[in-house]
Every structure is written in structure tokens, then in C-alpha cells.
Amino acid sequence: MPWQLTQDLADFMAAAGSYLKADPVRNTVPLTVLEALRAGGPSVYGDAAPAFAWHQAAGIVDGAALRTPPHPLLVAGFPAGAAGALLRAFAADKPAGASAPEPEAEELAAAWAAVTGGGTAVHTRMRLFRLAGLRAPDPLPPGAAYVAGQADLDRLLDWTAAFIAETGSGAEGARSVADKLSYGGLMIWAVAGQPVAMASLTRNVAGVCRVGSVYTPPRHRKSGYGGAITSAVSRKAVDDGAAEVVLYTDLANPTSNALYQRLGYRPVGDRIALDLL
Q1: Which domain holds residue 171?
Q2: End of a domain among 118, 143, 158?
Q3: Is residue 17 part of a domain?
Q4: Which of 110, 196, 234, 272 could connect to 220 by a Cys-Cys bridge, CB 3.0–4.6 Å?
Q5: How far apart are the C-alpha atoms of 250 and 269, rounded to whole Å?
Q6: Which tens digits make up the pLDDT trace of 89-130?
Q7: Are residues 135 and 229 in the same domain?
């Protein structure tokens, strides 16, 4: 069987780590999820045990995927024709969704219908951007950024819940907030001591950090705080030694797509999150 399944993170990294790190920008999500599991343990994302799979042909790994329940199946990539076997490998896990690069997502949708008889729906179309030269917002709004700490926990949990409700993202739950606080991965923009926006930053994995969870509460919007905190967290990543800084945007949100490009981010490729029905 070309797909091999394990619940052992060390075994998976020994087999598929080089494949993933060969393109750390495009594989930023699986790599940072794996690093969070390594640093925080298997319950960082949920109580159920994670599962990992790699595809191997002629002794060469050419595909990888993982699942951290309750989150969707996360696909780094696979060769054409391998989607059906991947879904059968995770059949007992019964994923309700999958996230994959655009070509693989299209094959997954067709394979899901063939393997299960079920349908699929596009949950989100996302675009990966990489920083090509940071440009601070002009004009910069009042205030300054600071690295969040435990004193900010309740506010961060509230804002994270609101972010998830607005975006439909489940990637940043309470456990993930605690994990990010443990390494200084959350920043807040404050005006006169009043927090008005937040953004997160992943650990540096293979030279890449990813910006995420950019959120401004409704009452503070249209004041430039989202751009300011994104610029600040991007600068922190660069100053801390990241060779690449990346982020994903929802293609249905033209405002954020335009904002990040004004800050110096340039498109790399698209990814699709599917609901498996």
C-alpha cells in the first residue's frame, strides 16, 4: 500500500520530514502543526490522537497528510491518482473536511464521491502570500504593538472565539491560544493602553513563520489597526530571524487581500478547504 499510516509523530517526521521541508513555504501549515504537536504534545489541538500518513513510491516519499481531530484532514500533497487510497486510509477517522492545495483538492472531491458516495462543498478558498519586502501602513494609526501575555488571556480567548465565528476557521481554539502564549506568538495593538486588535505568529519552522488570526473587534474597525498589527507581527518574525514570512487570506475577502499586498505580501498559490458531506 503506497500510503502508510501512523500515530507516531517521530516515525512520520523520519519518513516525511524531508519531503515537507523541501518546500517549507507551501507546506507552512503542516510543518507548524507538526511543530506544535512536538512542542506541546498530542493534545494541543484536541483530545483524540493525531494521525499521519505519507505516500511512497519506488522508495521516494511524494505525498503527506495528517489529521488532528476535530480539525479537517490536512493534505500537503500527493501524486495524481492517490486521493482515493488516502481517503480509504483515513476511513476509520471519518473526517468531516479536508484542506489541500487546489489541484489535490479537486481530486479529493472526485475521490470522496467515488469512495463514499458522498458529496463535497467548498468551505473556503484561500491564497498563500509570502512577504517580499515589508511596507508599514502609511499613515500608521496611533498606538503600538506588544507581545501578549497571560494577563491578556481572557481577551484573547474572547477575540479568538469571535474570529472563529466570523471566519469559520477552527484552527485557533483555546488550546492553540495557550500554546502561542507559551512562546510569545500573539501580539496586540493598543491605543492609550486599550487593546484594539490582535494577530498571531507561528513558531519558526524551517525558516518560515506564518501570520494568522488577524482580528479587530467591530467597534475598532476602519481605523487601520488590522494593517498595523499585521505589520508589527511581520516585523517581529523578520527581526527574530525568519527567512520567510507568510500568511493565508480568504479569497472571498477582497479587503484583506488588498491590505496584505499593500504591506508587501505577494501571492504564492491557492488552497481549498472542503466540507466532506
Answers
A1: 130-268
A2: 118
A3: yes
A4: 196
A5: 12
A6: 998 888 889 999 999 999 999 999 999 999 999 999 999 999
A7: yes
